[in-house]
Amino acid sequence: MSDDQERGSQAPEAAGGCFSERPYRLVEVEQEGPVATLRMNLPERKNPLGPAMVNELLWALEDAKEAASVRVIVLTGAGKAFSAGGDLKQMSGGTDGPSLPSKGDYVDLLESFAGLGKPVIARIPGYAMGGGLGLVAACHFAVASSDAILGTPEIKRGLFPMMIMAVLQRIMPRRALLRMMLLGEKLSAAEALEHGILSHVVEPDALDAKVRELSEALAANSPTATRMGLRAFHAQADLPLAEALPMLRDQLFAILGTEDAREGLMAFLEKREPRWTGR
Known about the structure:
Layout: H1 3-8, E1 27-32, E2 35-40, H2 51-66, E3 72-77, E4 81-83, H3 88-91, H4 106-112, E5 120-124, E6 127-129, H5 131-138, E7 141-145, E8 149-151, H6 165-168, H7 174-183, E9 186-188, H8 189-194, E10 200-202, H9 207-219, H10 223-236, H11 241-256, H12 259-270
Parallel strand pairs: 2-3, 3-5, 4-6, 5-7, 6-8, 7-10
Antiparallel strand pairs: 1-2, 8-9
Helix pairs in contact: 2-4, 4-5, 10-11
């Protein structure tokens, strides 16, 4: 590994706790207070998910995970789309090499959300199709504009939404998922909300305000409780009840021993706002 690659793999370091700068070409990274925004930035093509975009998202998510100053992550797309899904040009032979050392592929990207220990909000200003919809499903919250359109059109191209089935089937009803995948139907934001794909739908001019409101509410909570709670949530998801309950009992005992738990209980008794340390 080269010196540049070694530097690129280190945790982010910057004044004020913001991300270190990386040579991104397709992703924009911003931090405002405890909220980091990762923006897929190829709006003229509706932010397609090619290898380079996926790789840059993996780096940005890892940086957000490691940055103590980040408590909430917002994932969105530039322009009027979240993401149109897989890059068909690259699937048909085009190339777009990564600007950073390879961190993995789309499967690694979907899997990474479970290990972040920080809540991720998908901000959906418009289209979220195929692999883009998979990212929406992997996020913990999904806030969409009322004119957003979501779906899995792969079957219309002789393909099938294989990998994203694994995340979609965890959040939406079986028959609704099969109908969407087998017919290639597009869903309105209202329909996606009904099927559990979205957590919130707002008018287009209220999208940013709703994302900000949700981000602030999440960031106000104990980062320790959030981190341990999210990891326990993902760990128990596929366990039988007889295995999940003892594991969660152990996690409760663990969280009771943290400084944030002690501070939260003391603040309640003293009728004041808690001062979280993240420990």
